[in-house]
Protein: histidine kinase
Organism: Sphingomonas oligophenolica
Amino acid sequence: MGFDRRFTLVLAAWIAALFVALVGFIWSLETDGLAAARILAGLIVGAMGAGLWRHIDRTNRTIARFIEALGHGDFAARFDGHGGAGFAALGDAFNGAMRGLQAERDRSARELRYLEALVDDVPVALLTVDAAHGVAPANKAARRLFNRHDGVRPEDFAVYGATLAARLGGEGEAHQEVLILRMPGGPQRAIVRSASLERLGLHIRAVTVEPVQGALDTIEMAAQTDLVRVLTHEILNSLTPVTSLADTAATLLDAEPPDVPDARIAVTTLARRAEGLRHFIDSYRAVSHAPVLRRRRFAVAPFADELAKLFAAEWPAVPLTLEAQHDLALDADPDLLAQVLINLLRNAAQAALRGTSDAWVRLGFTNVGGHLWIEVEDSGAGVPANLRRDIFLPFFTTRAEGTGVGLNLARQVVVAHGGSIDIVDGDAGGALFRIIL
């Protein structure tokens, strides 16, 4: 990448002119009586030297102006290589690079505008907290939600709740929790999440506040409707024979003479049905109390082996396939989790025996993307799709001898661990219960 042709020719002409002027100046110095010629020759030499210097310095000044424009972020500037300036190829390369930088800046500006609009229109309130600027709303949702305070200090947000103000101030900082906000329409529960960021060397916390009272109310009403539906069904099923037996006993005792033996049988049956109703109510009380976890870290392999031994002792006729990696570990309550899996294995064994003659059950522990998947699969007929939503409801059961409590308690334990439980079709067509922790 050298000088362009025009620059070289002009440079050669200036050098030649300067050389001729120097020769003339030297000749005038050596010849007597040419004082005026000496002065004129000296001026010509100076002019040629100045012209040569200006021609050489022009490219330097062009490059300097170009780099100065670049330093000020003026990507629209172009390297002027015309009019005799040198480094034409370098100028073309500079101009190409500037066009690329300008296109990249335009693309980045468009992407930044999109991200700003996206953050501003996200329906979850976003707050930023830093030492220099305090607490500031970062989008429309935050400005609408937090519009009843003045100031940017965390304590200024105490009007929405002391706990929220404490979290914004960093006291007892939590990654995610549910807080109560004091809003004009009354207290509202909200999910508050926080994360740490670095911006230009400044530590910033991003805090999202998502009011969920409406969604929770809807879910609660749906759950209450389902629970009332199941409870009404079960209680009526229990009260119908009780009422009938009471009428029968009263009729037998009112007879002349009273039929005491048959009345005694009716009353005995009535007592037994009343005991069944009491057991049902006790089961409801058990479901209504959330489980208390005693978490600890333990290895999965010995835990799975113990479950397999318990299963083999209770169901010797049903083969159990155990799949568990030896390097897996779990942070959970081993007793509650074991009770959940024992119930699932028992249900699986019963379903397998009611299904085909080739009954089997599989218990698997797998690490999938950093989550522990626990699967209980059977060779039974599976669970119909229209019942999969209801089987985790309290007291819902499809078996005459079932109480409908086990799967609901299992779900409570899994949710208390921060996990999920679901039912899908197994590869062999049976039911597959999957717990993800």
In short: DSSP finds ten helices and twelve strands in the chain. Residues 296-436 form a domain with the Heat Shock Protein 90 fold (CATH 3.30.565.10). Residues 213-254 form the longest helix (42 residues). The two ends are 64 Å apart (CA to CA).
